[in-house]
Amino acid sequence: MDEFTRILFWVWKIGESEKSLVEVSRNSSKAREAIELLQKYSLVKVRKKGRVFLISLSEKGFGVYRKIREMRELIGLDARLVQQAENTASALEPVAPGAGAVPSFLAGNPWLEVLAKRGRERLGL
Asked: Which element (helix H / strand E) includes 19?
């Protein structure tokens, strides 16, 4: 795999959230190699919390992530995945009545809206 393809793969894998080194790859040498590659182009921020390294995309990295997402939407890849998920979900029978209901501690919780907005703001939506 060429360097450009590897960059796209790792940026997509890290995505919107902060990941630990193990979440990037279970193979520690491969994870470190990926992080070094992304740091070379200033696409990630790495911080250490205790003994754990936390990796997140930089602003430049989020720009790349948004472009990848736009390409997936243009191709229709995401729409196909959503359709497959809907088909799979409709094929499954409900386990119990009300199984899809939101738990009472989440119903009307204003923090869910705050957290959803933070994610959208970070992605520039």
From this structure: strand 19-20
Per domain, the residue ranges of the chain are 1-89+105-119
**Degrees to nearest 5, angle at CA 100 with 97 and 102:** 115
Distance (Å, whole) CA 25 – CA 23? 5
Contact 20, 53 (CB under 8 A): yes
CATH number of 1-89+105-119: 1.10.10.10
pLDDT digits (tens, 9 = 90+) for 83-109: 666 666 555 544 455 555 667 777 777
| CA 30 to chain CA centroid, nearest Å | 19
Strands (E), 21-102: 44-49, 52-57
N- to C-terminal Cα separation, the chain: 31
What's the average pLDDT block by block, 10 residues per block, for the chain (125 residues)?
92 92 92 95 94 94 93 78 63 52 73 74 66
How much is the mean pLDDT over the chain?
Answer: 82
